[in-house]
Amino acid sequence: MTVKVLLLDDEELVRGGLRMILESDPGIEVVAEAADGTNVLDLVAAHRPDVVLTDIQMPRVDGLEVTGRVAALPDGPAVVVLTTFDLDEYVHAALRRGAAGFLVKDIAPNDLLAAIHVVAGGDAMISPRITKRLLGEFANGGAKPGALKRLAALTPRELEVAVAVGHGLANAAIAESLRLSESTVKVHIGRVLTKLDAANRTQVAIVVHDAELV
Length: 214
Fold this sequence. Notes:
By secondary structure, the protein is an alpha/beta fold. The chain has two domains: 3-135, 3-Layer(aba) Sandwich (Rossmann fold); 141-210, Orthogonal Bundle (Arc Repressor Mutant, subunit A), CATH 1.10.10. It has helices spanning 12-22, 40-47, 63-71, 91-96, 109-120, 128-139, 145-151, 156-166, 171-178, 182-196, 201-210, and strands at 3-8, 28-34, 51-55, 78-83, 101-104, 125-126. Strands 2-1-3-4-5-6 form a six-stranded parallel sheet, with helices on both faces. Strand 3 (51-55), helix 3 (63-71) and strand 4 form a beta-alpha-beta unit. The longest helix has 15 residues, at 182-196. Residues 147-212 form the HTH luxR-type domain. Keywords: DNA-binding, Phosphoprotein, Transcription, Transcription regulation.
């Protein structure tokens, strides 16, 4: 199936370049674009994208606000945030608001295409360039009692799945490591998301890292 993408960036030249890269993949279609997130909910309603690819820094309604608005939708599209700098001050806030991906703009075209497909499939994707540093920041100061308390609500098997998500494993790899079927893994992940009140796998990973379990 074709992955439909809504593209948001205030620079027309950047949007054009991203659209060219995305549509070089026959499995991806850019269904709409805009210079900021002012009308993002209307665009989502009109075009039903699978993924919203948004710049973090835009006039009027920026990528952080876009993330919050879209993540609040029932069965809304996944949000992938783009940034020019790997230490963007909004990284943590975007992930906590529900972004399913966070990528730097100098990402290789093939990696961008792969990330769109990964996120559309329900997984999270953070640029490898910032993952180690980002998660290291979440772990600073030792295990956080709040994270440990949230994880205490999980069954032993659900905790194993959550830790695997924290390691960045996709469903197939989790199924193989825990000797489960992929369908069973999906069920466990759904329960983990509900019990942790997490919007996506990235937020699960943050809780697990806060608890220093990875």
